[in-house]
Design a protein that fits this description.
heterodimer, A: mainly alpha, three-stranded antiparallel beta sheet, about 5% strand, B: alpha/beta, Rossmann fold, six-stranded mixed beta sheet, 10 helices, about 35% helix
Chain lengths: ~260, ~280
């Protein structure tokens, strides 16, 4: 069994001011950035937002290619936004005409405004996941949801569930690989035949994986209870991930700057 | 914290304990009239074949299971009392067989912190306990490592560190070596030995492998739910009939050692690993 290094999420573990910033502050800044993107009413605003983002990427020491990776996932949406706004039916003026359809300058302008907004949004959230480990994001989510606890939102339990899911991703992946190997050795053909045949070949693999997952869940519950887990009530946290004064300054100054930018440009 | 501790006898004590998985005591009992006590600073091995009730006994120690009749007491406390559940479980920590299925944290130190976090220990104190526990099992320096990148033996030592971080008086190890390679097994046994004899924990080591009793002070043999032997491991190892009756098998090294003894070599009965046997012959 190769101890395959399975990357959870896209976290790039280098040290930078962006990495050191508390996850909560980072999530707050991404939210403010999003608000700013929806507040701006011209290309000047988008350009300013883009400049902020480029500066943040440079500061994070994350390879620019990694930050751009998220873009390919939304390429179709971006192209659709561009065309949906740019294409007109028999317009008076046009740049290019294909039959009754034509690309119109004003439409393209609107289209690229919306497309750029989507791109900047995706890159900003990608930067968050590149510079924040899944565990930190989980902790921050718990902090955000904590005030909702009186309303019956089980913040601690949700965070614990997420943490355990993250913990078992590599274990389950390794196990799936093992089952695939075992079944291939006994003649299962998982990578040949038509799409339907392949799906059918995976069924026994998935059954074995699910069976083991239920067994694991059972064992894990007993182990957790033995270690006194009884829900979020009265739990403390070793890492606390406290918001230091620097985090508060970065969050408040950054957020107000972004919102101001959105309102003015 | 320890209410009712006025009359407390220290130790994990079983008095006439029986347990049946089927309700109302119908069907065969998994355990029948067990009386034994695990004391601090003692390593008590519980051996038995599959289905002998070893794991049932382990799970009665911290209230995961509740005795059908008889009483279990942990330092005088009743594990079946819902008000005392967490008190009892912080005194009796458990380590299970499958190393993967008991690790909760996404990195090593988070897993060790899990128990104390559940007990509501303050952050600084958790940090201290995590560092101490990892040092105790020889995993200092692995704090930020992801559990799936550890060997099975290391995972099992991590599970022991996570148990120790609750600062328990007693540790119940339920077949901790069953899924380990010889090296991992030797590490875990040496650690169990040190925890009992150097750090003064009461350690209950459940195993199906008779060779594991070499590190024990006392050994209990379970045979289909009945305590068929309780005493010095050397007495058990010299009693082939008792071993066979309980469905246990003397490891081949033990058989070799017995032949050597017949030929006049002075080989201790606890020499049940090749290393121990070679060491004994060398001296």
């Amino acid at each position: 069994m190769s101890p395959a290094r399975i990357a959870i999420g896209q976290y790039v573990p280098v040290d930078s001011p962006v990495h050191r910033l508390n996850a909560l502050a980072k999530m707050g800044l991404v939210a403010a950035f999003t608000a700013a993107l929806f507040l701006v009413h011209g290309f000047a605003g988008l350009a300013a937002a883009g400049a902020v983002l480029v500066a943040a990427i440079a500061l994070s020491r994350v390879p620019a290619a990694a930050a751009a990776r998220g873009v390919s996932a939304v390429a179709v949406i971006v192209a659709f936004t561009l065309l949906a706004n740019g294409l007109r039916w028999r317009p008076a003026t046009a740049l290019v005409r294909v039959g009754p359809l034509a690309l119109d300058a004003a439409g393209l302008r609107t289209g690229s405004f919306f497309a750029l907004r989507i791109l900047l949004l995706v890159i900003a959230t990608t930067l968050l996941t590149l510079t924040t480990s899944p565990v930190e994001i989980t902790e921050a989510l718990e902090r955000i949801l904590r005030p909702l606890r009186p309303l019956g939102v089980p913040a601690g339990e949700l965070a614990m569930t997420l943490t355990i899911a993250l913990r078992f991703v590599p274990t389950t992946a390794e196990e799936t690989e093992r089952i695939v190997t075992a079944q291939s050795m006994r003649g299962a053909r998982l990578d040949s035949g038509g799409p339907l045949a392949r799906v059918r070949a995976w069924v026994p693999v998935l059954i074995a994986v699910f069976f083991n997952l239920f067994r694991r869940a059972d064992d894990l519950a007993v182990a957790m209870e033995s270690r006194c887990y009884h829900g979020g009530e009265g739990r403390t946290s070793m890492r606390m991930s406290k918001m230091r004064s620097a985090d508060w300054v970065a969050l408040l100054a950054g957020a107000s700057m972004l919102i101001a930018m959105g309102l003015m440009l | 914290m320890a209410q009712g501790a006025g009359t407390a006898v220290s130790g994990v004590a079983f008095e006439d304990v029986s347990f049946s998985y089927s309700a109302g005591g119908a069907g065969r009992s998994a355990l029948c009239d067990i009386t034994l006590t695990l004391s601090s600073g003692e390593l008590l091995a519980v051996v038995g074949a599959n289905g002998s009730g070893k794991s049932t006994l382990a799970r009665l120690c911290n209230g995961l299971l509740v005795a059908s009749s008889g009483v279990v007491r942990v330092d005088g406390l009743d594990p079946a009392d819902p008000d005392l559940t967490w008190d009892v479980r912080s005194r009796v920590a458990m380590v299970f067989q499958d190393p993967d299925n008991q690790i909760v944290g996404t990195v090593v130190e988070d897993d060790v912190a899990f128990g104390p976090e559940n007990l509501g220990v303050p952050a600084d104190e958790i940090r201290r306990r995590v560092d101490a526990a990892l040092a105790a099992v020889g995993l200092a320096g692995f704090e930020r490592r992801e559990p799936h990148l550890l060997s099975d033996g290391q995972k099992q030592r991590l599970a022991m560190a996570s148990a120790l971080a609750m600062e328990p008086a007693y540790l119940v190890l339920d077949e901790p070596c069953a899924m380990l390679d010889p090296e991992g097994r030797a590490d875990v046994l040496a650690l169990a030995d040190a925890l009992a004899h150097e750090r003064g924990h009461g350690v209950l080591l459940v195993t199906h492998d008779i060779a594991d009793v070499a590190v024990a002070d006392r050994v209990a043999v379970l045979d289909r739910g009945v305590l068929s032997f309780l005493g010095d491991p050397e007495d058990l190892l010299s009693d082939d009939a008792a071993l066979t009756a309980a469905g246990l098998e003397m490891p081949s090294i033990g058989v070799l050692a017995a032949l050597l003894r017949e030929s006049g070599f002075d080989v201790p009965r606890r020499a049940l690993t090749p290393e121990a046997l070679v060491g004994a012959l060398w001296h």
